[in-house]
Design goal:
VCBS repeat-containing protein, Thrombin, subunit H, Lipocalin, 5-stranded antiparallel β-sheet, 26 strands, Quinoprotein_ADH-like_sf, mainly beta
């Protein structure tokens, strides 16, 4: 059921969904002007997809995500917004408090606003300032936030105890939604599930398999990625010295459009592991591959139909820490999260726009 709306000042009204009608909690503005010495002194938290929304009204989508600071040797988790043109920080706000806040803090954009989850609640944020407008309690920890396909004002919230709900960001009302919208269904775990660390919400699906639409001599498949009109398989050469390989199929066809080494470079320079991260965007496919001797990762864009290499660039600082776990493609840019950084590349040229986050005294 949907119960009561409460309006405070000019804040957007948010309904509390509950059987016993708990009171609505309203937070004060947490908008913070960012001093220069704090503007870069943070680490990017590689937890989930960034949210994208034009919060400053300049016509370019800005980037909203989870960051971490260390203040007096203590960790401080925050949600922050960054200008899409310059990557300068616009605002920061503390997430909902409670045990498990780091794991349960997720942010998603919908209807010109932001929804932030916490251990047992949702908070609606004003996009321009990060100011909390109101909160809705949850029956358990949130597992996922998802925008239903074709919806312009709702966010579906997956809750661990299965008391899922749908939050309308325009009216501020929440109602039970036990069935996930089709695009929000989380595939069940199986023997073919790709790595457990693979974030949900990627536009490309992935499965771990050694089966291809047709046999390719010397190609042992490991992962298959699907999106749009294409199927992308990554694997390794076998028999023989291990070399990372790629094959691209058009949907519904068994003959590959092309196949071969992941990059146009000496294959002995590549780590003998199949690429674990690939994303498709239109007729382009993006891969991350690792160098063996020099170390570090490269991001490469290839034409999905012909295999032509559009560009191939190194991922900065990827010789240390954990490697990239995902690729996020949005509005002509490619976002590569790894360890404490989020690197931003132009999709057309591979040019590095900049990096959010840093490590230590870097």
């Amino acid at each position: 059921m949907v119960v009561g709306l409460v309006t405070v000042g000019t804040a957007v009204p948010v309904a509390v969904l509950a059987l016993r009608g708990p009171r609505l909690h309203w937070g004060r503005s947490s908008f913070t002007l960012i001093p220069p010495d704090r503007a870069t002194a943070f680490q990017w938290e590689n937890l989930d997809a960034p949210a994208f929304l034009d919060v400053n009204g300049d016509g370019t989508d800005d980037v909203i995500g989870h960051i971490r600071r260390f203040v007096d040797s203590k960790s401080q988790e925050l949600v922050a917004a960054f200008d899409g043109r310059t990557l300068a920080m616009l605002w920061e706000t503390p997430p909902n408090e409670g045990a498990g806040a780091l794991r349960t803090t997720k942010v998603i954009a919908q209807g010109g606003k932001l929804v932030m989850s916490g251990p047992r609640s949702l908070t609606l944020l004003e996009a321009k300032t990060g100011k909390p407008l109101g909160s809705v309690p949850l029956s358990d920890a949130p597992e996922r936030l998802c925008v239903p396909s074709g919806d312009t004002e709702s966010v579906w919230v997956e809750v661990l105890d299965e008391q899922h709900l749908l939050l309308n960001t325009r009216t501020g009302t929440a109602r039970p939604a036990p069935r996930a919208p089709p695009n929000c269904v989380t595939p069940p775990l199986s023997a073919r599930t790709c790595g457990m660390g693979r974030p949900v919400g990627l536009t490309t699906t992935c499965e771990s398999t050694d089966e291809l639409p047709s046999d390719i001599r010397g190609f042992t498949a490991r992962y298959i990625f699907r999106a749009g009109d294409f199927l992308v398989a990554t694997g390794i050469r076998s028999p023989g010295t291990g070399v990372p390989l790629v094959a691209v199929f058009e949907k519904g066809h068994t003959t590959p459009l092309w196949h071969g080494n992941v990059a146009d470079t000496d294959p002995t320079h590549l780590r003998d592991m199949p690429p674990e991260t690939a994303e498709l965007d239109g007729d382009s496919v993006y891969f991350l591959y690792e160098l063996a001797q020099q170390g570090g990762f490269h991001l490469i864009r290839r034409d999905a139909r012909t295999g032509a290499v559009r560009w191939d660039v190194p991922v900065p600082r990827s010789k240390v820490g954990s490697g990239p776990s995902a690729l996020w493609i949005h509005a002509g840019r490619v976002y590569v999260p790894h360890w404490t950084w989020l690197d931003v590349f132009e999709a057309e040229t591979g040019h590095l726009v900049g990096t959010l986050g840093r490590f230590g005294l870097e």
